[in-house]
Amino acid sequence: MCGIVGITGSREVAPMLIEGLRRLEYRGYDSAGIAIQQPGGLRVHKRQGKIKDLEVDLPWEEMQGICGIAHTRWATHGEPNRVNAHPHQFGPVALAHNGIIENFSSLKIQLEKKGHEFLSETDTEVLAHLIEDQYDGVLEAAVQRALKLVEGTYGIAVIHEAEPGKIVGARRGSPLVVGVGKGANYLASDVAAILGHTRQVIYLDDWEMVVITPDDVVTTNINNEAVAKEVEEITWDLDQIQKGGYPYYMIKEINEQPMTIHDAFRGRILPDSGDVKLGGLQLTDWELRNIRRIIILACGTSWHAGLVGEYLLEEYAQIPVEVEYASEFRYRSPIIDPGTICLTISQSGETIDTLEAMREAKRRGAKTIGITNVVGSTIARESECGVYIHAGPEIGVASTKAFTSQVTILTLLTILLGRRNNLSAEFGMRVLQELQRIPGKIQKMLDMSDDILRIAEVYKDHSNFLYLGRGPNFPIALEGALKLKEISYIHAEGYPAAEMKHGPIALIDPNMPVVVLCSRDGSYEKIKGNVQEVRARKGKIISVVTEGDEEIAALSDHVISIPETLDMLTPLVTVIPLQLLAYHIAVLRGEDVDQPRNLAKAVTVE
Ligand code: F6R
Q1: Residue 258 pLDDT level (bands cut at 50, 70, 90)
Q2: Which residue among 358, 399, 485, 605 has the greatest number of ligand 1 atoms within 8 angstroms of its CB, and so is best to mutate?
Q3: Between residues 351 and 522, which one has the greater pLDDT?
Q4: Best mutation site among 351, 377, 401 for ligand 1, i.e. most ligand atoms within 8 A of its Cβ?
Q5: Interval between CA 311 and ligand 1 midpoint (Å)
Q6: For residue 240, what pLDDT band results from cuts at 50, 70 and 90?
Q7: Which among 78, 207, 518, 525 is least surrounded, fewest beta carbons within 10 Å?
Q8: pLDDT of 260-287, one tens digit each?
């Protein structure tokens, strides 16, 4: 995810900014840059690639100065390249920005009418122009006026060539922390960047701003009212900070899901009309209405997300869907009729099997749509159009937050296509209003982590697990089993619950923990029978039920209650306790959950 560093003091700032950026590398990025204030103006240097490349490239002699800002960019709008990298300079203003300016297109049109010309594809450049447009001698006042015109999220650091030693910061929805030093002050999106200089920090809240100079820190809100802030002392070390205080990236990423799901639907839903807009799709209403068949291509966890998508798209958008293992699809002779589109789902956008399957589909005439996380990845570039899931970098090898973001995008796609076919506006409204409550419901599940830890303690030494689910919870059973096996090395199988009696039931005895997904949805009555079948054979039942369900609870050894939601959105909630169960079991067994053996984050070999 993007990172910001700003420093104002009395020493050469460029080496310190580079050092700060290096400490943000763990967040993932694709390009970086720095902007330095100098007596004659601003000096900006940026490039695609790694910090070490930026460092080698930097014309150090020309980058002298004692006040500057720097940025690592994880692309959201526009490819990762030098022009799109931050800081963005427009005339006397330079700006580094994290977040997404949702109304950047309309702001851009207004500014173009005033004669502004834009070089990049980014939303951030528009904000740099807007601040310059509002400037009348006091930078913080211009920033305040500009931000009042902005919809979306931001953490920003801004400098102006006419105000030496001053950095203005502001926050809404994207973190910003002020480092309080002696004769120097700091601004960053993450304390890791400034920890080498100070442990005294002020965390800004939404709608707050700060003006830092070498000897002063002034905090206000966006209305220019003074805000008194507490200075806090950082007691964590760097490694802990990079993981946000969590012991592993995996658990950090599991806990990010209320935010990442929100980021996946933010700016894309129209809850008042029950509709969805996915700008990246670039398909007309006529084209959307004429999709006759969808083939989903993916691997692993992304394939499981595709299976959830199959349930959603067939049930609610009435479009036939096939979900293919990418590795199998590419070696068959798949039939692509006119009106077939291929959805390629990949977190990394680099999985070779998925990429090659997409190329095969393209060769056979399918329209290809990529659902990816990494902007500018090969699948994102080679698909004809696509939708980014905006989950931020996923560092833990076991995919968690990408899965729920992929399912969120498939939910949006279902509403978009369904509304062009058969779905009523009322249904769309109900789903989208409930979707906005999902981050809160997931938070409730995350708060139950200790309860799940206690279940993990009971079963951590078992050698086999079975996961059962029906309908859209069947892929969640597969995903729960995959999470457990890949990080704890316990053999685990996911099955459609009714299929159990055709074979796996032979395995059930008092040593077999069976995780059953029994949320109160369309399959509830049927799955009750499957729970009885396990109980009759004395299997240990860990059930995931809807709050208040006493019937299944009475049949279970352990119960995990999830908040009630619409059938369509249930998989987003039921997967959370399974991620936590897998995580806790692996940690209790002493495994390194971020680097499971034999696995890689992006599988770029066949
Ligand atoms: C499981 C996992 C893998 C990936 C698979 C596809 O936790 O991470 O199964 O889901 O390798 O990767 P992407 O989505 O990057 O194509």
Answers
A1: very high
A2: 399
A3: 351
A4: 351
A5: 20
A6: low
A7: 525
A8: 999 999 999 999 999 999 988 888 999 9
Cα within 13 Å of Cα(207), Cβ side: 8
d(CA 127, CA 97): 9
Query: CA 361, CA 354: separation in Å to the nearest integer?
Result: 10
Alpha-helix runs per DSSP H in 178-248: 238-242
Instruction: Classify strands 185-188 and 167-172 as parallel, antiparallel or unpaired.
Output: unpaired
518 flagged as catalytic:
no
Count of C-beta atoms within a 10 Å radius of residue 55: 16
The pLDDT value given to residue 605: 60
Give the span between the Cα atoms of 410 and 309, in whole angstroms: 5
Per-residue pLDDT tens over the stretch 410-434: 999 999 999 998 899 999 999 999 9
Cα angle 364, 365, 369 (rounded to 5 degrees) comes to: 110
Pick the catalytic residue from 2, 67, 342, 518.
2
Question: Catalytic one among 444, 485, 528, 601?
Answer: 601
pTM: 0.78
Rg (CA), the chain: 25
What whole-number distance in Å separates Cα of residue 223 and Cα of residue 538? Answer: 65
Q: Is the pLDDT of residue 606 over 60?
A: no
What pLDDT band is residue 174 in, cutting at 50, 70 and 90? confident
pLDDT, average across residues 481-493: 97
Q: How many CB atoms lie within 10 A of CB 140?
A: 20
The residue type found at 421 is N
Q: Tell me, what's the pLDDT at 604? A: 59
- Gap from CA of 599 to ligand 1 centroid (Å): 10
Could you tell me the sign of the dihedral formed by the alpha carbons of 242, 245, 249, 253, in that order?
negative
Find the residues whose C-beta lies inside 6 A of ligand 1. 299-302, 346-348, 351, 354, 398-399, 482, 486, 602-603
Residues facing residue 341 across a β-bridge: 294, 367
Q: Given the structure tokens 């931020």, which residue do they identify?
A: 392
Residue-level pLDDT at 381: 83
| 601 has catalytic annotation | yes
Short-list 244, 569, 264, 599, CA closest to 402: 264
Region 147-168 average pLDDT: 96
C-alpha 60 to ligand 1 mean position (Å): 41
